[in-house]
Specification:
Elements (H helix, E strand, L loop, with lengths): L7 H9 L8 H11 L6 H8 L3 H11 L13 H19 L15 H25 L4 H10 L2 H9 L1 H13 L4 H8 L4 H11 L4 H9 L11 H15 L16 H11 L7 H11 L1 H8 L9
Length: about 300
């Protein structure tokens, strides 16, 4: 890939024409089996969809499309599933390109990093829902989706522009820099902007798209909502779990744990709790994430 292809305008135009992304195979396989079980409820299906950022994106894209009459209004997985219905869900799953169908170019990405991104997205979603409840945000399901999708730009870069993603990752590791700092050194845009471009192209509700765009800088933009602050904190909390022996890479961390708590107290009533309290809550809620992987052989981890 030459330098011209690294320009924001070129990347954005390619994203605007993007029709689909590959999902996380363990979730998709389990979800497909649940779909074929006549006793599975829409609520059960929603829970499985909400375990994968890309699958959630595909569902939101469909539910917010003009054919259903709710353009830009559907912000939760539960509501999206009700609107779409089982028939459309089955058709969507059948059409999905899963992780083992990656091209040779996409396999340039260390596939253990794909797993790291998946864990981080889910821990962020769990944290966002919990913080939303603490902060009195009226739509915890919306906060969950925003947390799940906040780093969808990394999924886009890893799948569609693996050379860019690999170069940023290499810069981050070699110079011991947070990933976002390495992005700024190499690119004129970041994964937050890439995710927002996808949200705009796929018709996501404006609140979700703007949260994706601003989740690293809740104070820099006047008028940002509580949702942006919630997802910003959720992202920090999820990254902090690296100290708890979870597969979240240290090179994503930007600030100390002490600073995380300082920022938490600015936005959320902490009631004297320390960081361990919030980490333990998120880990407890996220126990089933490991169960998703237990029965599936992740060949790409050892490839």
């Amino acid at each position: 890939m030459n330098q011209e292809e690294f320009k924001a305008g070129n990347i954005k135009s390619k994203i605007c024409g993007l029709e689909k992304l590959a999902t996380f195979e363990p979730v998709t396989c389990r979800f497909a089996s649940y779909l074929e079980n006549n006793e599975t409820s829409l609520s059960d299906l929603s829970r499985w969809i909400a375990l994968d950022p890309v699958l959630t994106c595909r569902i939101l894209k469909l539910a917010n499309s003009p054919c259903y009459g709710f353009s830009g209004q559907i912000t939760t997985v539960n509501l999206a599933v009700v609107i779409i219905g089982l028939k459309a869900l089955r058709e969507l799953v059948w059409s999905i390109s899963v992780m083992d169908q990656f091209t040779d170019q996409q396999k340039l990405i260390d596939q253990s990093e794909v797993v790291n991104l998946w864990f981080h997205s889910n821990y962020s979603a769990i944290a966002a829902r919990y913080l939303a409840e603490l902060a009195g945000y009226p739509a915890a399901g919306e906060a969950y989706v925003a947390g799940l999708l906040h780093d969808i730009g990394n999924q886009v870069l890893a799948q569609q522009f693996p050379e860019i993603y690999s170069r940023v990752m290499e810069q981050s590791l070699m110079k011991n820099l947070p990933f976002r700092v390495a992005e700024k050194q190499l690119l004129s845009f970041g994964h937050d902007e890439v995710g927002a471009w996808l949200g705009e192209a796929w018709g996501f509700p404006r609140m979700i798209t703007e949260t994706i765009r601003n989740h690293h800088a809740p104070e820099e933009r006047e008028g940002d909502s509580l949702l942006v602050k919630i997802v910003y904190l959720a992202d920090l909390l999820a990254h902090s779990l690296r100290e708890k022996n979870n597969p979240v890479a240290e090179h994503w961390m930007e600030i100390s744990e002490t600073e995380i708590m300082s920022r938490m107290k600015k936005f959320i009533p902490c009631n004297g709790h320390d960081l361990d309290y919030y980490q333990d809550h998120i880990l407890g809620e996220g126990e089933k994430l490991n169960e998703v992987l237990q029965d599936t052989t992740l060949m790409f981890i050892n490839a």
